[in-house]
Amino acid sequence: MGVTIIGLIVIVAIIVLAAVAYLFSRIVVVPSNLTGLISGSNRGTVKIIHPGGRDFVLPVIQSIQYLPFTQTTIGFKVTAEDENKIHVNVAAVAAVKVGDSDEQVRAAAKRFLGKPNTDQAIADSAREALIGSLRSIIGHMTVTDLISDRDALQRNVFDDAKSIMANMGLEIDMLQVSEITDAGGYIESLGVPEQQRVEKDARIARANAEREARDAEVTSRQQIAERERDLSLRQAQLKAETDKAQADADSAGPIARAARARDRHHRAGGGRGQGRPDRARAGLHGAQARRRRPLPARAGGSGLQDRGAATGPGRRRAHPSGRRGPGPGHRGPCRGRGQGDRRPGPRRGRGHRGPRPGRGRHDPRRR
Fold it and tell me: Using CA atoms, how far apart are residues 66 and 51, in angstroms rounded to an integer?
């Protein structure tokens, strides 16, 4: 009896534990890149569990499905006619995803849940919508507008596709037109004038740059030449001043020496002028002494005749050989002229025997 009760208790406990484990397994946590949708409510609505949330799903009567919230990149290319019926090829890239609002999640769930590959279904639907919008916008623009204003093309396609994709519960995160071409070379021809203009501007810019460079080089050379000229002129001026100073210094020596010689000459001349009376007195005493010398006896005279009576004052003594003095043409010292006096004396003819210094008018030796 007791064993049976214990067995029943163990069985009940196991059943309870299993039921509790099953109930806990019905609590779901939604990943961050998915959105959970719980269906089976008695109100007939779908309960949305946002990424990262959790909820309890009743067993048997409720079920849960997941809608991807990841972004999908779509590349597409369109061949269409522009406003002028010119065929152009436009390639673009877009990024789409399921919208964040509950209405967008429910709309996407209605269209894409239950398909084998939800991500691929979303990408295909978004591509078809974008291609239709791009073809429509190209038909209302010219090739020139498409090329010159890509921002307007992208903006128009984005606005047109946004309203279409909102009905599918999708959003466009990005749209970029990557290439615009044509098979007939029309776009390339449109670029020729611009290319020629750019090349012309480039040639003009190069020519202007070269001219400015040459002008700058010429200006620099002119400035260098002017500075070298100024330097040469300044060097010549300095050399002339140096040569003049050297010449003045060279000439200052002889001038100074001449001035010193002239000063010495003047001082010497003044000394001779002051000493001339002394020499005259010395000559007078010498003449008086000569007068007292005995002379040889002459007929009718005494040997002690005063020499001064015969010769007179200031007379030179006769030469022992009987010569009376210098011969004809002799230019002796003139009266009143010192030894340093350079003034020329009176010119005399040949054989002139004029009065000589030291002989008076009544000297008996004068003939």
Answer: 10
